[in-house]
Write a structure and sequence with these properties.
Layout: H1 3-24, H2 28-39, H3 44-51, H4 57-96, H5 115-129, E1 133-134, E2 140-142, H6 143-146, H7 157-160, E3 165-166, E4 175-177, H8 183-191, E5 196-205, E6 217-227, H9 232-247, E7 253-260, E8 263-272, E9 289-298, H10 300-306, E10 314-321, H11 322-330, H12 343-346
Parallel strand pairs: 1-5
Antiparallel strand pairs: 2-4, 3-4, 5-6, 6-10, 7-8, 8-9, 9-10
Helix pairs in contact: 1-2, 1-3, 1-4, 2-4, 5-11
Bound molecules: phenylalanine.
Residues 180, 182, 222, 260, 263, 293-296, 317-319 line the site of phenylalanine (PHE).
């Protein structure tokens, strides 16, 4: 066998061997090793090419052709295997290194009526049912409406009991956050002639420190009836009617004499405790009664201040805390819960 034939044969067998090694490479690393071995600088194929020098001139072309044929075969086999292994690696990493960036479904959190809002609306319903209209007034109020027209003259000691939050506007202590909803009485009587039957629910403010029962911001509902021939009996009957409507007909109303500058006579009203039914428990401080608010017959001075003739008309007014009623009806022990704004709290009702 000539040297040339021998080299051609070796080139062909290297090509077969290499193609076989490439196709058996199980991973990219193995393929890279095989590539170095069969196509690298010190590969058998390069040795064969070097050996061409020792071949006679007329036969060199034959060997050269065999070498480049073998190289082309090897390169093609390598490229084919590389494509397959790269595709496999890509799928593998796509599944194994997968980062799930899908956003989970977002829960749609529905709002919920606050217990104070619910009681507010229930109270409006009860009074609308009794023939009252709903009135409103501003939360930042003038001295005239909050005090003076309500028969609290300047310097009157009853003003001191109101723990007023003043607003720095106008003359000193002339503008304030209303300390009660009673200024709406004055605004209503100024703007319309009797007969008047209104309730005014709303926010009121006092310089109170937050504790289990007091908050510097609270809600009241005011009631006002002005007509000919209205008596204290009508007032007591009305209060009893709404207590029964709200808490049930077995809950009793109780009245005690009291004082407010804008009503005469004045009463404080309470109801029998909804929790112990009068037996005495912690909610009612073992008295069996729960204080609700104040009321009375509209003082003639108030009528005069708003231009209503006290010789023709009489009327009554009442006011009580909405938060208090909400606390009682829903058994909320600390008033702070009403102000936290925690939806989990509101959802319970
Ligand atoms: N405004 C009074 C208060 O806040 C309550 C009240 C209203 C009393 C109406 C009498 C008549 O204490």
């Amino acid at each position: 066998m000539t040297v040339a034939n021998d080299l051609v044969e070796r080139a062909e067998s290297v090509a077969r061997e290499g193609a076989d090694a490439f196709s058996r490479a199980a991973a990219l690393d193995d393929l890279a090793d095989a590539e170095r071995r069969f196509l690298g600088k010190s590969s058998a194929l390069n040795e064969i090419r070097e050996a061409i020098k020792s071949v006679e001139g007329s036969e060199r072309a034959l060997v050269g052709k065999a070498v480049s044929g073998a190289r082309a075969e090897l390169e093609a086999a390598y490229a084919a295997r590389l494509e397959v292994l790269e595709a496999q690696a890509a799928t593998l990493s796509a599944t194994r290194d997968r980062l799930d960036l899908t956003l989970g479904p977002r829960e749609y959190v529905r709002g919920h009526l606050h217990p104070v809002t619910r009681i507010w609306r229930e109270l409006e319903d009860v009074f609308v049912g009794l023939g009252y209209k709903v009135a409103e007034g501003p939360e930042v109020e003038l001295d005239w409406y909050n005090f003076e027209a309500l028969n609290f003259p300047p310097g009157h000691p009853a003003r001191a009991m109101q723990d007023t939050l003043y607003v720095r506007l106008g003359a000193r202590e002339s503008v304030m956050l209303r300390t009660h909803t009673s200024p709406v009485q004055v605004r209503t009587m100024e703007s319309q002639p009797p007969p008047i039957y209104v309730v005014a629910p709303g926010r009121a403010f006092r310089r109170d420190t937050l504790d289990a029962r007091h908050s510097p911001v609270f809600h009241q509902i005011e009631g006002l009836a002005v007509d000919e021939g209205i008596t204290l009996g009508d007032l007591l009957g009305t209060i009893e009617a709404f207590i029964h409507a709200l808490f049930g007909s077995d809950i009793e109303a109780r009245f005690l004499p009291s004082f407010f500058p804008f009503t005469e006579p004045s009463v404080e009203f309470a109801m029998s405790c909804v929790f112990c039914r009068g037996a005495g428990c912690t909610v009612c401080s073992r008295t069996g009664w729960v204080e609700l608010g104040g009321a009375g017959m509209v003082d003639p001075n108030v009528f005069t201040a708003v231009g209503i003739d006290p010789e023709v008309y009489t009327g009554f007014a009442f006011g009580f805390g909405i938060d208090r009623v909400a606390q009682l009806l829903y058994g909320v022990d600390h008033i702070k819960n009403l102000w936290d704004g925690d939806v989990r709290f509101a959802r319970q009702f």
